[in-house]
Amino acid sequence: MSAPQAPQPTVLDGIVAGVLEDLAVRQATISEADLRAALADVDPPRDPMPHFRGPGSSVIAEVKRKSPSKGELADIPDPALLASEYAAGGAGAISVLTEQRRFGGSLDDLRAVRAAVDVPVLRKDFIVTEYQLLEARAAGADLALLMAVSLPGARLAQLHDYARELGLTVLLEVHDEDETARAVEVGAELIGVNARNLKTLEVDLDVFGRLAPLIPDDRVKVAESGIFGPQDVERFVGEGARVVLVGEALVRESGSGGPREAVRRMTGITR
Ligand SMILES: O=P(O)(O)OC[C@@H](O)[C@@H](O)c1c[nH]c2ccccc12
């Protein structure tokens, strides 16, 4: 008889393992008390919800250099400049990937972007500890991503509540029915459905339409990943999205008008 097989580690497991190693290094250098002290000097959080609840669709435009699924996407020597173009195009918020190993980002990118724009800024990372939320706010983040898949049981509510105490708006990301129910249950105001399965990296644009009806209409529904043009935005808005989160299509944009016009084309679409 063969022994039961241990489950294969997923792509996500690999990413989180690297994130935890890097986190341990930072924690050995900067104490939680230091971060708490830094909160006193940081700009107060900006609230993205009025814009997201306003008329027409909003875009969260992402600063993303590379990804495990696509490899190198764009150089982005000046993230603040790119974010300024996004904001000028009408982005409701800017997402900054701060994960270093697989996405090529950093908290320095986030600080630079936050100083350059007037719109709220999201820390997009693999957040599994309170320390990372403190770090996010101390660096100026207004929103933080939490992923239901990475936060089993009571951890989801614990981190969600802690983020709110810090004044952060949580973008709570889900990928299936069970995660959606958990997100609704913890009271998340902003729920993102990721079309990309982070365990396999496969994109399925039908996931939003399947999960959106399970999210009450008093929450703001966000469609994430695999959005390349206004026709994709139209589709998701038709299925109940108020906000779309776009990375690759915008960082690759080099046509006339660049990222600014690309954001503009995707903004304000109504049902
Ligand atoms: O580049 P895209 O396909 O437009 O996707 C953006 C965003 O949805 C994606 O970067 C993302 C969504 N959830 C995440 C969680 C971790 C890292 C990255 C992500």
From TrEMBL:
<dbReference type="InterPro" id="IPR013785">
    <property type="entry name" value="Aldolase_TIM"/>
</dbReference>
<keyword id="KW-0210">Decarboxylase</keyword>
<comment type="pathway">
    <text>Amino-acid biosynthesis; L-tryptophan biosynthesis; L-tryptophan from chorismate: step 4/5.</text>
</comment>
<dbReference type="Pfam" id="PF00218">
    <property type="entry name" value="IGPS"/>
</dbReference>
<feature type="domain" description="Indole-3-glycerol phosphate synthase">
    <location>
        <begin position="12"/>
        <end position="254"/>
    </location>
</feature>
<dbReference type="InterPro" id="IPR045186">
    <property type="entry name" value="Indole-3-glycerol_P_synth"/>
</dbReference>
<dbReference type="GO" id="GO:0004425">
    <property type="term" value="F:indole-3-glycerol-phosphate synthase activity"/>
</dbReference>
<keyword id="KW-0028">Amino-acid biosynthesis</keyword>
<keyword id="KW-0822">Tryptophan biosynthesis</keyword>
<keyword id="KW-0456">Lyase</keyword>
<keyword id="KW-0057">Aromatic amino acid biosynthesis</keyword>
<dbReference type="InterPro" id="IPR011060">
    <property type="entry name" value="RibuloseP-bd_barrel"/>
</dbReference>
<comment type="similarity">
    <text>Belongs to the TrpC family.</text>
</comment>
<dbReference type="InterPro" id="IPR013798">
    <property type="entry name" value="Indole-3-glycerol_P_synth_dom"/>
</dbReference>
<dbReference type="InterPro" id="IPR001468">
    <property type="entry name" value="Indole-3-GlycerolPSynthase_CS"/>
</dbReference>
<protein>
    <recommendedName>
        <fullName>Indole-3-glycerol phosphate synthase</fullName>
        <ecNumber>4.1.1.48</ecNumber>
    </recommendedName>
</protein>
